[in-house]
């Protein structure tokens, strides 16, 4: 329809009156004021102005930040009277939110209007169908046809990526339902319908929805037809546009959508057969032959791989390599039988061919080559291949039919995993994909709309199988490693300054770098034969040599510190650039004995799969390598992780059967429990008293405590009914406290856990999966420590694996565990960071062995003391073996005689000495037998410990002792998730039986790093994940992998999205109630733990400040707001000066530097603040440096009494828009929070709105209290005088005045 016919008179007049009105002025007039002034013509004007400009993406981002959707479009959206411009604008705004990663808030505005969202979705589908039907869409004077195409596909990508949202899922699934089979060839459709008995019935029922009848209205029938026809229309349009250079980005987006649909079982179930029937891969491939755009071809190959993935489309069952092969043979046999029945003589080459020949594309093409067009068409029909194009309706050319037949007979049999190499090569490191991932989002590369796109896999809500998850994760982790290597290699080569000598191939390096050296020698010395059934060498060893003669002593020392298992990168460097990139792992370092020698040698292991590929070519890859690059300490961790992924992908599924369906995204979220929910749960010393037990279950019908339960520090097990109206049963767990407390002083829990914390601890004690969400300050660490303690006592034959994201968090948690009633000899801390533990004992492998040997001496000394008390001659201190002989020959004999009443208690003298007092061992009126049994139980524990230590006498090497310690002694093994992923293979080989996995900081751990430890044992009984998905996700450095591939998602957050039940802790004891209110709305019911946060310092105002929290508006300083000295290195001098001046003021009025943390949202601003502090504070004792100057991301998990927060940005909100980062930023402060930023930028932001309202309630200028100090809260007259600081200059002037006194 022409634009003039669509415009009403009012719209024309409005357009004429506001020809020169900017988008900003339209926004201010119509929705940014006190009231919203709706006019559909305004939407037309905005679209014309946005798409008539050269900065489309910038305008769209600005509109999204100004709440164009929330304040203007959506409140006035209704079915039946919407302009195309309104539908398109809603699409564009939703797409902007998706592109910016605002997934946590993207769909919240539609939750209250589910039916209206259905209207919007249907309107979008209708609008896209118009474009797919080759009808132009014009808004005003602008042709929006191509925009509708691109925006519509991106809208569907966003929707299908959010299927956990009910209103979205309901609409999306209609587009990929059984109805789309309407467009398949009838014979192919009937063949598929016959595979599942229920499908024919469902198909008949679906057919009834296409026409108006008693149960289906006309509108519903029309919508059903639109849903039925949409995907086939989109496929036909894809094929038509695929040959056009102009529409390559659109085609790439459609392919991205199809890949997304093929990557989830619910959406691929009926789509995959349709794609195969349409021969979409071959149709597109044929038309793209002359197109140079590598991205489209890359995505088409990825779509082909998704379609060929070994999973049954209709049922969703994953297939093993054997099942895939069996399916292929059945299909080939059926095709051969049909050919024989049709004309065995005519099709003799096919009938008599082997399955291997027909399954090979090259062999099948050779067999079909002599056949004519008619014969090929007949064979195609037998294989259910279309002989006429589903797109054009024309007869398919012979070449196309042959390619389709080859594709139908081929099967993608698993086994390629063996050829995966953990080391990225030069094609990956310097390829387009890594480059595009690093520059993702920096340009409008997606056409006018600037939608980002990469040819890499995505991590989604669901996975096709365990192998699918591992394959995607492997590729993404390898790409992230390649991106890191790219930067390191480029920097090293730049510094080395390679130069080729004239007339020679030799490369001379005129520069130098600490991290890379020229190679003197590289020899491949050992290539072992492949194992049976494999085609890659079993082992490839090489020797490297470098000459350190011309380098400084510090560089020599650094290279000599390279250790076994470190990764080195080998390069072929020419003057023109880097030609080859290979990796190797250090097996041994050969340091010359002659101190005068400067040659350093390395024995290294090359990757066997990479080596096999290299030698299969004609190039001498290893002869040309001339540079070796080392990486920083953590740079070698990628290799064992990727190797573990490769091994798991090549093995049968390793996840426990009860856990796999939920982790992959398809199991019933509620079915994560194993066993009887009503069974008793061991709670250990969770409760400090019986009263505490009763208070913890106050919501139940009652609490029945058994008589033998001790009143104080009871050890109990609890039977918690599913119905809260019933009674909770509490009974004693194990033995009561010792009759002789002086023998062993048991550590007791002293924390008064809240009812919700008790519930979390109880849930974690059951078999199955437990999720615990811990908002800031709710005691996640204390809960995790108690869970570990309870599991340790409840399951003495199992090992508890304790995991965290960071070493700092692991040490904090481990220190809490050490303080509980757990035997130190059963604790083991692996990995780096153990030295930072605040404990007298060492818990590393070496530390535990040393402690065991020291403990051995102590125990044997006690045995000797016992022998002396019994007057048994001999020296029993020399070995554990002699001590155990003493137990059998003397101790046990005397005890048995005592039990027979043949003699008095034989150990009185020993225990009297142990008691260290003159009081009798058996006081009057005591239960003599109970005291005697308690004494002997102590002796049994002593000799049991001796027996446990005895193997350390027999095992001589440190490795043997470490293996024994891990496999037999350690019952609580703690490490970071990265270390667990690195050592997974070793732990599996040792056969460590992990019964429980407890992970804290689970929301900060990558999906794959969480999953890997869960594959350690098929006997795994319980998994406890503790974290907070409302705070920051895992760190992924690559912008493209983070934004496009969603690589930053954690398993914890994904399980929450899938609807797995969780326990949310609800009492915070960190911050003032007013500060906690800034982020309270992010949680179900976050209360304040009184009286902890309402008394003491929490009840008093902050001395020197007018308010305990405030937003301070910072204008341009010296004519400038934010600056960007280098890419992404954002700084704001005005805010830096202001924050430092406030810190100086705080120090002057009496605050301790340890109370203050200065946080910012960018590394650039952190560096600038440090510079200002170095000039203004560090040299002066009265100021000094604050406790921390950090980014918000780095400060997660930490806290401070007072936080000064700099938001930096003045032109664009930046990544504080991620509400998870905002939650972290606002929850670090306990007593005072002062935020510095640009009010006009942050106040309108939808995600920040709730917090900004509370922060601005106290105004936007800093209010101080004059003449107050940290010690005095009132001046002599008892009155307070407020000072309003207008700007940074005024704050600086005040500080100068105060320092002059």
UniProtKB/TrEMBL annotation:
GO biological process: mRNA cis splicing, via spliceosome
Record-annotated RNA helicase aquarius beta-barrel domain positions: 498-631
Key words, A-Z: mRNA processing, mRNA splicing, Nucleus
Compartment annotation: Nucleus
Function: Involved in mRNA splicing where it associates with cdc5 and the other cwf proteins as part of the spliceosome.
MF GO annotations: helicase activity; mRNA binding
Complex formation: Belongs to the 40S cdc5-associated complex (or cwf complex), a spliceosome sub-complex reminiscent of a late-stage spliceosome.
Alphabetized InterPro entries for the sequence: Aquarius_b-barrel (IPR048966), Aquarius_N (IPR032174), CWF11_fam (IPR026300), DNA2/NAM7-like (IPR045055), DNA2/NAM7-like_C (IPR041679), DNA2/NAM7_AAA_11 (IPR041677), P-loop_NTPase (IPR027417), SF1_C_Upf1 (IPR047187)
Species of provenance: Coemansia brasiliensis
Protein name per UniProt: Pre-mRNA-splicing factor
PANTHER family, alphabetized: DNA2/NAM7 HELICASE FAMILY, RNA HELICASE AQUARIUS
GO CC terms: catalytic step 2 spliceosome; U2-type spliceosomal complex
Limits of the RNA helicase aquarius N-terminal domain: 24-409
Domain DNA2/NAM7 helicase-like C-terminal positions: 1047-1239
Family of this protein: Belongs to the CWF11 family.
Ranges for domain DNA2/NAM7 helicase helicase: 756-1038
Organism classification: Eukaryota, Fungi, Fungi incertae sedis, Zoopagomycota, Kickxellomycotina
């Amino acid at each position: 329809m022409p634009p003039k016919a669509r415009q009403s008179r009012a719209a024309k007049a409005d357009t004429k009156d506001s020809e020169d009105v900017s988008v900003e002025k339209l926004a201010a007039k119509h929705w940014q004021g006190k009231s919203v002034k709706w006019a559909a013509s305004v939407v037309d004007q905005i679209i014309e102005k946005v798409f008539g400009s050269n900065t489309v993406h910038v305008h769209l981002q600005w509109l999204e930040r100004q709440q164009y959707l929330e304040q203007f479009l959506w409140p006035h959206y209704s079915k039946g009277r919407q302009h195309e411009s309104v539908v398109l604008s809603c699409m564009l705004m939703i797409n902007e939110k998706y592109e910016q990663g605002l997934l946590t808030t993207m769909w919240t505005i539609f939750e209250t209007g589910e039916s209206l969202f259905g209207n919007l979705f249907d309107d979008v589908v209708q609008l896209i169908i118009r474009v797919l039907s080759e009808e132009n869409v014009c808004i005003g004077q602008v042709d929006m046809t191509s925009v509708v195409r691109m925006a519509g596909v991106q809208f569907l990508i966003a929707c299908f990526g959010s299927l956990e949202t009910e209103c979205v899922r309901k609409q999306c699934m209609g587009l990929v339902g059984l109805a789309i089979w309407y467009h398949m060839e009838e014979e192919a459709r009937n063949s598929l319908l016959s595979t599942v008995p229920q499908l024919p019935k469902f198909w008949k029922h679906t057919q009834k929805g296409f026409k108006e009848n008693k149960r289906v209205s006309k509108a519903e029938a029309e919508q059903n037809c639109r849903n039925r026809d949409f995907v086939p229309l989109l496929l036909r349009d894809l094929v038509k546009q695929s040959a056009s250079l102009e529409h390559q980005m659109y085609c790439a987006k459609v392919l991205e959508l199809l890949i997304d649909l093929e990557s989830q079982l619910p959406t691929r179930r009926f789509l995959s057969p349709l794609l195969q029937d349409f021969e979409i891969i071959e149709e597109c491939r044929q038309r793209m032959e002359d197109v140079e755009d590598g991205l489209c071809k890359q995505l088409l190959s990825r779509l082909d791989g998704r379609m060929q993935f070994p999973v049954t489309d209709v049922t969703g069952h994953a297939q093993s390599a054997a099942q895939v092969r069996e399916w292929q043979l059945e299909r080939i046999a059926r095709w051969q039988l049909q050919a024989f029945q049709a004309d065995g003589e005519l099709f003799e080459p096919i009938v008599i061919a082997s399955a291997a020949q027909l399954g090979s594309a090259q062999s099948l093409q050779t067999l079909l080559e002599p056949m004519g067009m008619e014969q090929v068409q007949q064979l195609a029909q037998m294989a259910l291949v279309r002989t006429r194009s589903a797109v054009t309706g024309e007869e398919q050319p012979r070449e196309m039919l042959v390619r389709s037949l080859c594709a139908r007979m081929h099967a993608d049999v698993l086994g390629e995993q063996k050829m995966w190499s953990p080391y990225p090569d030069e094609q990956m490191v310097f390829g387009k994909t890594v480059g595009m991932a690093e520059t993702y989002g920096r340009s409008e590369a997606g056409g006018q709309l600037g939608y980002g796109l990469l040819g890499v896999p995505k991590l989604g809500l669901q996975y096709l199988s365990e192998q699918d998850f591992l394959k995607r994760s492997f590729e993404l982790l390898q790409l992230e490693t390649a991106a890191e290597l790219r930067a390191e290699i480029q920097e090293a080569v730049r510094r080395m300054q390679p130069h080729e000598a004239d007339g020679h191939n030799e490369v001379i390096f005129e520069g130098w770098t600490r991290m890379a050296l020229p190679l003197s020698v590289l020899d491949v010395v050992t290539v072992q034969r492949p194992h049976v059934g494999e085609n890659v060498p079993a082992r490839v060893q090489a020797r490297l040599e470098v000459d350190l003669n011309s380098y400084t002593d510090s560089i020599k020392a650094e290279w000599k510190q390279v250790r076994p298992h470190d990764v080195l990168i080998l390069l072929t460097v020419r003057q023109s650039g880097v030609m080859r990139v290979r990796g190797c792992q250090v097996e041994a370092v050969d340091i010359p004995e002659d101190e005068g020698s400067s040659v350093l040698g390395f024995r290294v292991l090359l990757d066997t799969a990479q080596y096999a590929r290299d030698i299969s070519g004609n190039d001498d890859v290893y002869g040309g390598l001339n540079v070796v690059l080392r990486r920083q300490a953590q740079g070698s961790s990628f290799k064992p992780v990727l190797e573990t992924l490769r091994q798991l992908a090549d093995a049968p599924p390793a996840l426990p059967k009860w856990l796999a369906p939920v982790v992959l995204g398809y199991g019933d979220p509620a079915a994560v429990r194993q066993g009887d929910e009503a069974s008793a749960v061991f709670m250990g010393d969770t409760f400090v008293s019986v009263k505490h037990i009763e208070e913890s279950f106050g919501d139940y019908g009652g609490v029945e405590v058994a008589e033998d339960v001790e009143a104080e520090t009871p050890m109990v097990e609890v039977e918690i009914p599913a119905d809260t109206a019933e009674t909770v049963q509490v009974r004693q767990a194990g033995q009561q406290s010792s009759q002789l407390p002086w023998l062993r002083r048991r550590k007791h829990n002293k924390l008064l856990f809240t009812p919700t914390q008790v519930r979390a601890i109880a849930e974690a004690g059951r078999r199955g999966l437990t999720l615990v969400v811990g908002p800031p300050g709710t005691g996640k660490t204390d809960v995790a420590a108690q869970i570990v303690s309870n599991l340790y006592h409840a399951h003495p034959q199992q090992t508890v694996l304790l995991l965290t994201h960071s070493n700092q968090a692991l040490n904090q948690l481990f220190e809490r565990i050490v303080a509980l009633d757990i035997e130190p000899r059963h604790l083991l801390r692996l990995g780096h960071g153990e030295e930072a533990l605040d404990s007298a004992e060492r818990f590393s492998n070496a530390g535990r062995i040393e402690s065991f040997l020291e403990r051995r001496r102590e125990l044997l000394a006690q045995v000797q003391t016992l022998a002396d008390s019994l007057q048994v001659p001999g020296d029993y201190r020399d070995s554990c073996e002699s001590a155990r002989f003493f137990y059998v020959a003397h101790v046990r004999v005397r005890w048995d005689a005592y039990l027979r009443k043949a003699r008095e208690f034989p150990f009185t003298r020993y225990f009297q000495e142990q008691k260290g007092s003159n009081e009798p061992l058996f006081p009057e009126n005591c239960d003599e037998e109970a005291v005697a049994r308690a004494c002997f139980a102590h002796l049994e524990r002593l000799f049991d410990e001796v027996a446990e230590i005895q193997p350390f006498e027999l095992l001589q090497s440190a490795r043997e002792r470490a293996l024994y310690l891990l496999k037999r002694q350690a019952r609580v093994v703690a490490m970071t998730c990265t270390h667990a992923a690195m050592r997974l293979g070793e732990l599996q080989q040792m056969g460590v039986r992990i019964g429980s996995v407890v992970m804290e900081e689970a929301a900060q751990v990558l999906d794959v790093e969480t999953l890997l430890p869960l594959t350690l044992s098929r006997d795994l009984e319980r998994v406890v994940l503790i974290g907070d998905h409302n705070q920051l996700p895992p760190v992924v450095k690559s912008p493209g992998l983070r934004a496009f591939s969603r690589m930053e998602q954690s398993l914890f957050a994904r399980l929450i999205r899938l609807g797995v039940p969780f326990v949310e802790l609800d009492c915070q004891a960190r911050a003032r109630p007013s500060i906690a209110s800034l982020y309270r709305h992010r949680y179900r019911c976050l209360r304040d733990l009184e009286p902890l946060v309402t008394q003491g310092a929490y009840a008093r105002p902050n001395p020197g400040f007018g308010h305990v929290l405030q937003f301070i508006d910072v204008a341009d300083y010296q004519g400038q707001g934010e600056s960007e000295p280098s890419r992404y290195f954002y700084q704001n001098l005005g805010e830096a000066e202001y924050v430092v001046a406030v810190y100086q003021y705080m120090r002057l009025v009496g605050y301790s530097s340890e109370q203050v943390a200065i946080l910012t949202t960018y590394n650039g601003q952190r560096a600038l603040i440090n510079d200002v502090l170095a000039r203004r504070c560090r040299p002066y004792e009265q100021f000094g440096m604050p406790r921390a100057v950090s980014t918000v991301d780095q400060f997660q998990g930490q806290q401070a009494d007072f936080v000064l927060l700099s938001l930096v940005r003045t032109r664009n909100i930046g990544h504080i828009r991620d509400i998870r980062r905002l939650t972290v930023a606002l929850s670090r402060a306990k007593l005072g929070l002062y935020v510095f930023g640009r009010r006009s930028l942050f106040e309108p932001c939808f995600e920040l709105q709730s917090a900004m309202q509370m922060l601005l309630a106290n105004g936007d200028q800093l209010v101080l209290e004059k003449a107050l100090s940290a010690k005095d809260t009132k001046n002599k007259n008892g009155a307070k005088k407020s000072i309003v600081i207008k700007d940074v200059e005024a704050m600086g002037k005040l500080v100068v005045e105060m320092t002059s006194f």
